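Section 3.1 - Work completed
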Amino acid sequence: MSGKSPDELSFWEHLDEVRKILFRLVGVWLILAIGFFIAMPYLFDHVILAPCNDDFITYDGLKWLAAHLHLDDGFFTQEFHVKLININLAAPFFIHISTSLWLAVVISVPFLLSQIWVFISPALYEYEKQGIRKALFLGTGMFFIGVAVGYFVIFPLTLRFLTTYDLSVAITNEISLNSYIDNFMMLILSMGIAFELPLVTWLLSLMGIVNRTFLRKYRRHALIIIVAVAAIITPTGDPFTLTAVSIPLYLLYELSILMVKKQETEEVVAEK
C-alpha cells in the first residue's frame, strides 16, 4: 500500500488500492491460464482423465482392500475403464479454454489470500495479525486438502459407481466429455470450498458468534443442512454421490467442534 497509514487513506485511495490488487490478481490468473492452456493436452491425459483408467491410485487402493478384507464385490475388484465421447463439435475447444481458466483459479488461491493479507494487514494490531495470518495459512492448506480429497476420493468413487451401475442390460453407458468435465470440476472445487468449514467456524468462534456448546446442541440440525448442501453441490444428485460428499462434510463439522473455543462456563466446569 502507499506510505500513508490505512486511517489516513481516503475512500477513493482505498478503491485505488483494491483496483491495484484486482489488476495483479487478473494478471496472475491470465498468466497461469495461458500456461495451463499450453500444457492442457498433457494435463488432460495424465491428470484430468486419469480417473478413467484402471491404474489410478484410488482403484489400486480398492483392489488392495478387496484382497486384504476378502471382498468379492465387483465395485472393488473389476477392471475399470471409461471411454468418453464427444457429441458437440466445438466442445473440445471450449473445454480446453474453460478448464485452463478453472485450474488457474484453483492454483491462484494462495496468491489471492496473500493479496488479501497485504490489503488488510496494515490496519491490524499485532495480535490480530497473528490470528489472521494463521487463518489465511490454514484456509489455504484446507482448500488444497479438500481439492485432493475431491480428486483422489470423491470423484473417482462417484465415477466408478455411476459408470458401472446397470439399470438394464439393454442400456449401454456412454459418458459425454461435457458431462465428465462438469462433474469433475464441480465436485473437486466444491470439496475445496467445503473444507473451509473448520476455518469459518473457528473465525466465528473468535468473534463470539458460535461456541462448542452451540455446535454440539445443533448437531442434528447441522446434519440436515449438510445433506441439503451436498444435494445442491453434487451435479448428479444420486444417493451415492450425495453420501460420498455428505460424510466428509459431517466429519469436518465434528472437526470444527474440536477447533472452536468453549464457553466460559464449560471451561470452569472442566477446571473443577
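Second construct:
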Amino acid sequence: MDLLEERRDARHPVDPHRPGRGVFALLLAFLVVVAGGVYGVARYYSYCERAGDTHAPVRFTVPEGQTGEQVVERLAAAHVIRCGGVVGRFILRRSGRADAILAGTYDLTTNMTPDAALAVLTTPPKAVPTVKLTIPEGYTIAQIAERAQQDLGISGKQLLELAGSGRYSLPPYLPEGASSAEGFLFPNTYEFVAKDVTPDIVIRKMLDEFATEAQDLHLKEGARSLGFTPYQVVIVASMIEREAKVAKDRPLIAAVIYNRLAKGMTLGIDATLLYDDPTPGDGTLSQSDLQTDTPYNTRINPGLTPTPIANPGFDSLQAALHPANVDYLYYVLCGADGHHVFSTTYRQFLQNKARCLG
C-alpha cells in the first residue's frame, strides 16, 4: 500500500458495525414487499366490501343459536357476499352487528355488500297479517270446510270439493287413489298468512300436521303389529273419536271394535251411518234409516267403513293403536257425564241398556 492509500484509509476508517450497501438493499426490498402486501390486502378488503354486478334471488335461513361468524361463512358460500374467512369475520366485527343477527328466513340476492346483507338480517321483519283456524277433534271435512269459510274467508265449497277429489295422498297413511282426505286433516289450531291462504294450502298444512303426529305415534309400525294398515287404524280412530265422550273410554271402545272384527261381528256403530245420513240435516236416525243399505251402515254390513267418518285427534289415534286388553264386545252410553258401560255378553248388554237408558 502506498502513502496516498494509507492517508485515504486514515480519513475514512472502516466501521465494522456500519451496514453495507447490500443490507440497505435487502431492507429496501423488504419494505417494498410489505408495502405491496398491505396494498394487496387493502385492495382485497375493498373488493370484499363491494357488491357484484349480477343479482339472483336467495332464500336464506338463519337458525336459532347460529353465531354471526357462522352466518357470514354461509352468506359467502351462498354467494350473497363476496368473502368469508378472516376478512369476512373482520367486516362483521367492524360492523358491530355480530350479535344482532336475528333467526328467521330472509329474501336476499347474490352479490350484496356485507352492510346491505347484515342490514336485512338484523332488521326485525314487518308483521304479516295472519288468520287462525281451530278445528276440534272429530270434525268431518264438511264441518272443516264450513269453519274455514267462516274463519279464513275462503270458499268452503272449494275446500270440500278438493278434499273429496282423491287428488291428495300421504303415504304410507293415506294411500294414493284414496277417494277422500277424510280422517287425515289433523285437528289443531293453525295460522295462515291472510293474503296467501287458499283451500289447497289449508288441506296440505293439515295433512303435514297429520304426518308429524303419525310419526310421533309410530302409526305405521303400530298398525302392522295389530295386523291392520295405517289407513284402517285411522278408520277405527275416527269411530272412537265419534263414540267416546270421556277419555278413559277410548281404549275400551277400541278393544270392542277390534274384538268384534276378529269374531266377524258387525260393529253396530250408529255414528258410521250418521256420516252417510240417509236423511241429512236432522242429525238423527229413524228406524227406516237403520235399514238403509249403505257401506257406512255397520249394523248390517260387517267390517270397517270404506273411509274414516271423521278426523280423529291424537288421543283417539293412540287408543286405536293401543286398545285395552279386555274381552268386551258391547257398550252402552250411561250417565250424564257421557261414560259408557261395557260388557262381554249380549245379555249383560241388555241389562246395562235397561239400567242406563230405561
